[in-house]
UniProtKB/TrEMBL annotation:
This is Cytochrome P450. Keywords: Heme, Iron, Metal-binding, Monooxygenase, Oxidoreductase. The keyword Oxidoreductase applies. It comes from the Bacteria. Belongs to the cytochrome P450 family. InterPro entries: Cyt_P450 (IPR001128), Cyt_P450_CS (IPR017972), Cyt_P450_E_grp-IV (IPR002403), Cyt_P450_sf (IPR036396), Cytochrome_P450_monoxygenase (IPR050121).
Amino acid sequence: MSRTMPSLSPRRVLQFALDPFTGMMDAYRAHGSVVGVGYGSQRTAFVFGPEANSFVFANPSLFSWRDSFEVMLPVLGDTALLVTDGPDHQRRRHLTLPAFHRRRIDAYVRLMARNTAAAVETWESGRRIDLYQALRSVIRRNTVEALYGAPLATDNHMIGARLQIALNSTDLPLGMQLFLTGIPNPMTARARKARRQVAARVQAEIGRRRARGPGAAGAGGCEAEGGDGLGMLLAARDSEGRSLGDRELEDQVISLIVAGYETTSAAMGWTVHAALHTPGVWDDARKEVDSVLGDAELTGEALERLPYVDAVVQEALRLHPPVVVLPRVAAQDFEFAGHTIRAGRRLAISPYVTHRMPEVWPQPTEFLPERWSPGHPAHRPATPSTFLPFGGGAHRCIGSPFATAELKTILIELLRRTELRLAGEVTPASIMAMRPRRGVPVVVRRRT
């Protein structure tokens, strides 16, 4: 017999909308692993914890991904990996995967390090800057240049400005976003117009590549154009010899740019903030970089020889996962933990809550890079259901190796080249990609 799902009171729903981070933790403490939030068609069943995560990841056929991420359609496009299901998703994922092969990441690391160093050289020593915004620009350029070559990277700022217009709607409370998807509204219209402008630039680059043919030289540091991400997407064929169509290419390029800098820049901001805010962490990470790398060029192989830097990044992703909730829409009736979830009902799991459960992670609110060392008392082996900063299952973020390498690379270059001091408070904002509200203010001095 199905149990009645507990629900938040109207006052708690309002608090939840205003501060979903505190709201989700309070809901979990008060009601356990299943709780209903909201009303009517916008009511969402939040299911918390490793058991819920495992259930959702193991049963993709129970959910519709397109319906789950309909609020992102104006930004990502209809054929993006995030919003497709079944065979279409499998085919597009298979064709996109080569751009993120390990050997490609090694080439990307050099480009990322070079772009970071160039940005640091423009920072005036002794001045206060918003490090989050400064690195956001670097990360966007890294993503565009590494995956799609120097020609598109020259339009990095235009692409970023237009996509930011499209992304602004995701800062609204989730209930408001869902409401706006069903009616014509100025915000969605602006988002679609801005995306069309980016799409036109992407299609122009696709046309230029096709006109020049495969293997043309000059990809801005990632070998020949045929060897970068866009070249691989153009050359990819499935088992029946079919390639990605123009609309599919456009949607994959734009969605990967968005994913490549929106969530990664948020994670980068939190990583630097946590490392500076926690006594000893920045100094310990710098000592490791200096002793292991010295003045040597940073490579993908070198990243593997910096376990403490890796632990700092993993701990930042645990405490501040860039994606706070992973929404789903039930494609059919099913039961979980004694509760019936009806077809069409919205459901959400939360990396943020899972990563802050004391029964899963000891001292969960403490930033402890040491917990990633097996001998530490707070160490727990990470599993797909207990550590999910990039989602999980068949739709786990395809760019997670790229993002992790970029976080480490930028952190290493900052450790090598700067002295940073926090210059203000930092609080979270946005449930879609949890970024630092009002940025990460620091006073920067270049290291000699």
